[in-house]
Design a protein that fits this description.
483 residues, mainly beta, seven-stranded mixed beta sheet, six-stranded mixed beta sheet, 31 strands, 10% helix, globular, disordered N terminus, binds copper (II) ion
């Protein structure tokens, strides 16, 4: 090619931002080959969650979840993304180590896909495992955009070798619809192992006292709940046979919520977290997933019947968060039984040995400012709320160095922390050391600390943020810049 591709992408991005000449983006990017390997079309459409609950939202290819995209590790793939909406869009390839210009975050320099424009995206998928794609726009108070919509779909990157010991795999995407604002939240605070830290509780209390707003900021609640786009008992059941080993790939595609999942009489053997095999596969009765987390778990079908696999919350399960598991030959109404009490603990799947020593430790303290932004809570990291206008990188990293992020939570909320374009290794969770668990999202408990390490091995602007849409849009983001 005689024209510099990087420059063209830049031009296309500028055109997109100005909202003009989407044909330029098309011409510039689609010229390399006549047909892309995959096509995603972003447009408004309907999801039939049940015959009585049909919601209008934005979708990929007119469906929810978006199509399962299967890539091969290390084999370049191209995806044409058409934006048939009236607002700019971004597709983020969550959990992949790809360049900033295709990662799908404007903060990193990825160009927007203009309204009624298109962009051809091309990258080499990695690492192998369960990933996903989703929109990455900042939406503030607009509940009709961003991850509040149906813009999410699973990705599976086939490993070069090793299939694993299971009979078949089933993908489950957990997702709420019909969001609305409310005052004060009811986040499940008893989900995670570990105890709150006194100093962080004091910090939270001081921030509450300093706040000019006396009431708590807005939270988002939902009317309808679904797995794979169907409310409980409205989609096809998962039909299984006794003795079968089913590998479930579960994605929490929520914009804001922590989700749980249990299957009465069965246990989940966790084999991978966020698509990465864990060093110590272990059995648990309940899964807990923060926003954007994935769990891959094998269930041995040894308890015949017709069961509800569902969320622990009676309200949310009652409003659709579940799916029926039906054994061959079994009949009757699907049964739900409350599982034994269980706290989610990432260290169960890690090694007890200490992780490698970092070259540098970066400490980040998170504080919530109640209702500080027109009724919305504002979030600061080390005193600074991220500004989309300034886009100032908060930290610089050097290629090849190992960094430890020590994040301290001065709020009672659980935060699903996400680092783009890198995997990280959990090194301490709620004060408990661990190693070997590689993730791209980790839940930080209320008034707790988490520590995780990443190696700066993928140059380019890198975004770190809370994956709770309401938190990231109101300050909870930071940029890392390579020098
Ligand atoms: Cu958060």
């Amino acid at each position: 090619m005689s024209i510099d591709r990087r420059r063209l992408l830049k031009l296309a991005g500028l055109a997109s931002l100005a909202g003009v000449a989407p044909h330029l983006a098309r011409g510039a990017n689609a010229s390399a080959s006549p047909r892309a390997d995959h096509t995603l079309r972003i447009a408004n459409g309907l999801v039939e969650l049940s015959p009585d609950h049909i919601v209008s939202t934005t979708l990929y290819n007119g469906q929810f979840p978006g199509p399962l995209l299967r890539f091969k590790e290390g084999e370049r793939v191209s995806v044409d993304v058409y934006n048939d909406t009236d607002t700019p869009e971004l597709v983020h390839w969550h959990g992949q180590m790809i360049p900033s210009e295709v990662d799908g975050a404007a903060e990193e320099g990825t160009p927007y896909i203009a309204p009624h424009g298109m962009r051809r995206i091309s990258f080499v998928p990695k690492p192998a495992g369960f990933r996903f794609y989703h929109t990455h726009v900042t939406v503030g108070s607009d509940l009709n955009r961003g991850t509040y919509t149906g813009l999410a779909g699973p990705v599976y990157i086939e490993p070069k070798n090793n299939r694993g010991a299971y009979d078949r795999e089933v993908f489950l995407v957990m997702k709420e619809f019909v969001p609305a604002f409310s005052r004060g939240g009811d986040m499940a605070n008893d989900a995670l192992a570990g105890a709150p830290i006194k100093a962080l509780m004091d910090m939270g209390k001081a921030a509450d006292e300093e706040a000019t707003e006396r009431t708590k900021g807005y939270e988002v609640g939902y009317e309808l709940f679904s797995i794979n786009g169907h409310m409980l008992a409205h989609g096809d059941p998962i039909r299984v046979k006794q003795g079968e080993r089913v590998l479930f790939h579960v994605l929490n595609a929520s914009a804001t919520e922590i989700r749980s999942l249990a299957l009465p009489g069965h246990r989940f053997k966790i084999v991978a977290l966020d698509g990465n095999p864990v060093p110590m596969p272990a059995e648990v009765p309940v899964l807990w997933l923060g926003t954007a987390e994935r769990v891959s778990a094998i269930v041995e079908m040894t308890h015949p019947g017709v069961w509800v696999m569902g969320d622990l919350s009676d309200d949310d399960r009652g409003n659709g968060m579940g799916i029926v598991i039906e054994y061959a030959g079994a009949s009757g109404e699907p049964q739900w039984l409350k599982p034994p009490a269980f706290k989610w603990d990432y260290t169960l799947f890690g090694k007890a040995d200490a992780a490698a020593k970092p070259d540098e430790t970066i400490e980040i303290t998170v504080v919530k400012h109640n209702g500080a932004l027109g009724g919305f809570n504002q979030w600061t990291l080390n005193g600074e709320a991220f500004s989309m206008a300034k886009m100032r990188p908060l930290y610089t990293v050097h290629e090849g160095r190992r960094y430890r992020l020590k994040v301290r939570n001065g709020s009672d909320d659980i935060h699903p922390l996400h680092l783009h374009r890198h995997s990280f290794e959990l090194t301490s969770i709620g004060g408990k050391p661990t190693s070997g668990v590689l993730k791209d999202v980790v839940m930080m408990g209320g008034f707790q600390e988490v520590e995780f390490d990443f190696v700066a091995d993928n140059p380019g602007l890198t975004l770190f943020h809370c994956h709770q849409q309401l938190h990231m849009d109101f300050g909870f983001m930071a940029l890392f810049k390579y020098v």
